[in-house]
Structures are given as C-alpha cells and as structure tokens.
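Class I SAM-dependent methyltransferase, pasting as requested.
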Amino acid sequence: MAIKIIGWVLLLGTAGFFLGKFIKHKSLYPFLPFRHDFRKRRDSFRLVMALMDRIKARVIVETGTSREGLKGAKSNGAATIVFGTWAKANNAHVHSVDISPKSIANAEKEVIRQDLADYVSLHTSDSIAFLKTFNESVDLLYLDSYDYSDDPEVQLKSQEHHLGEFKAIEAKLHDNTLVLIDDCDLPNGGKGKLVIAYMKERGWKIIYEGYQVLLVRDSFSY
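Structure tokens follow.
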C-alpha cells in the first residue's frame, strides 16, 4: 500500500511539473510553431503585430539583430524572425542593424533557413550611424541593441544609446508609427528609461508596459 501511495505521489508530482511548464509556455502558434516559447515577450509581440495589420505596416526597422535565431525566442525574443515572418505574410520588409559581424552572420543563417531572405535585410553597422542615413518612413521601430547588464555604467551607456537611436530616426516616424522597446522591466529602468521619458515629453504615450514597452503618438489612429 505504501509503495502504491509513493507511486501516486511521484506520478502527480511529475504531472504537476509538466503542467506548470505548459502553463508558463507562451507561443505565437499558429503564427510560428508551438515549440517556440516567447514567454515575457509573447503578449507584446501579438499586440504590435495586430496593430501592424491595422496600419498596414510596410517598413520595419530593428536595432540589434536576432543572433540566436528562433533558438533564442525565450531569452532574446528572436524579433528578426518574428517580424520577418510577419513581413513575408504582409508584403513588408525588415531592416535589422547590428554592429557585430558575428551576430549578423548568425542571423543571416536563420533568415535563410526560414525562407525570409526576400523580406529581411541585415546591415552591419553602428545602429545610430545607420539610422541617421535611413531614408524611408518607418512603420515599426524596434529598439533592442546595446546589451544591458548589472553594471550601472553599462546600464547608462545602453540607455543613452537607445535614446540616441530614437533621435537619429525621429524625423522618419509618422503619426501612426509604432515604437517597441525591449528589455525595459529591468533594474534601473532597463533599456528604455531615457528614451521613454524623452518620447513622453514629445507627444508619445505608452499603450503597453511589461518586459517590453510599446508607444504611439497621442494622435495615433487606425
């Protein structure tokens, strides 16, 4: 009897463990295969893609490319592939810029693997320099470049860099541009601390706030 009870306890414990993992798993299925867990970014990705549908977005600009491809869905978000897949379905185009040749090379492999080469352009450059010369109107700006850390000095440099990115491309943003900023729910305000404050002073408002923050202009309409 005791052995049976122990067996049931172990069985229930195992079932509970896997049920817990299933509940925490947040996929973008059927948009992308269920096995990819986007966890803390899933809801914001869903929202921004729904809004891109409504504004008929055509030009997406991303700073910081997906160096791990879909393998990094849970840790880094794999936004290059997420937005590239959306672009393929909606006749749009993604421009992803990263200063690291290695990151660009890794992203390129995944872009090709996912058959997105016609919809994603990868640029090896300092992101601010790239944005200053970008000459198209931007429908979605996704800021996720300078890596954040526990070091206060690195945190400030990352925050200043993201502010610099926004200022560099600001003139190319229109009334219905969406701006999504990654890694915001982190110590000392995350990557978006300075740029969000700057934007709010200039007629932008937050419509989603979590690990990522999504902003639109006060005049946003669709």
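Note for the archive: The first helix runs from residue 2 to 24.
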